[in-house]
Automatic annotation (TrEMBL):
Phylogenetic lineage: Bacteria, Pseudomonadati, Pseudomonadota, Betaproteobacteria, Burkholderiales
Protein name: DNA gyrase inhibitor YacG
Family the entry assigns: Belongs to the DNA gyrase inhibitor YacG family.
Iron-sulfur among keywords: no
PANTHER family xref list: DNA GYRASE INHIBITOR YACG (PTHR36150:SF1)
Length: 68
């Protein structure tokens, strides 16, 4: 009995962060990144970028005044 049929060959993709080889398979929790570190780096960059965008509250949309 072989279980190889249930585990197809993993795809190797390029890690968006370091450009290295990354295993694109369920076993790779950090896919498409190669490691947790790379994922965190990219996630951090994306989060900070997003945060900057969302950090701009629109005063015109003051339906509920915070002052007073
Ligand atoms: Zn990487």
């Amino acid at each position: 009995m072989t279980t190889e049929t249930s585990s197809p060959a993993p795809r190797i993709v390029r890690c968006p962060t370091c450009g290295g080889d990354s295993v694109f398979a369920p076993q790779n929790t950090w896919r498409p990144f190669c490691s947790e570190r790379c994922r965190m780096i990219d996630l951090g960059a994306w989060a900070s970028e997003s945060f900057r965008v969302e950090a701009h509250p629109e005063p015109d949309e003051g339906d509920e005044p915070k002052e007073n």
